[in-house]
Amino acid sequence: MLIALLGRILQKIDSLANKIKAHGMLARFKSVGSECHLEWPIKVHNPKWMTLGNGVTISWNGWLYAIEQYGDQSFTPELEIGDKSYIGNSCHIVVCNRIQIGKSVMIADRCYISDNLHEYEDVSRSIAENPMRVPGEVRIGDHSWIGENVCIYGNVTIGKHCVVGANSVVMQDLPDYSVAVGMPAQIVKRYDFSEKRWRKTNKSGDFIDDLGLQKLPRAASHASA
Ligand SMILES: CC(C)(COP(=O)(O)OP(=O)(O)OC[C@H]1O[C@@H](n2cnc3c(N)ncnc32)[C@H](O)[C@@H]1OP(=O)(O)O)[C@@H](O)C(=O)NCCC(=O)NCCS
Asked: Is the pTM of this model over 0.85?
């Protein structure tokens, strides 16, 4: 009985200490909206380059890393997470240039998002001693849902209201209102606004279901985050 009571008191103290640590960390971000939650423990490097909108939740055990210096390379990184977005536990987000996560985006557990890659050209040096390649930026459009264990890296724009299936690897742009799965992630469905339903597609995004083949309109093939 006494042990159980002591256990509960220690749990409360622990949870209060975690809240204080999370608040202290949020105070070091570039800017933070109202009602943001950072769950402790979490590893955050260089929070001064990170901006959170209102109502953002970042779950425990993650690692947010804004790289300013890598060997002799210098960067000015920007990580932006929009209003009401949710980042699941154990997510790893690494930015050298820019990662922009839109509003109300849901990112499930154990995802990896990065705008950079380790070079491996020089075989006389370890991979860690090779330079960092930064091909562009990562953008994830409003309302998108990224499933568990997804990797997104390089120069990638995922459009609005997209769905990326669990365990997928996204290395190419996805148009607005599309579902993509696999390694590399390829489109399998898009929302048809004239039919008001999701329809199956081939990997180019052309509808291929009961209504027959209909090409993805050119404008829709460029995602806008
Ligand atoms: C992507 C997802 C939403 C698609 O759901 P859906 O619309 O019901 O899709 P369907 O079952 O009709 O699948 C469409 C096709 O994609 C394939 N597919 C679906 N999910 C896949 C995945 N994660 N990886 C590889 N292929 C997948 C299906 O096998 C099917 O292929 P087929 O047309 O050749 O038969 C779902 O499969 C998924 O991965 N959800 C993520 C779950 C998750 O991570 N939740 C975390 C909690 S927030």
From this structure: yes
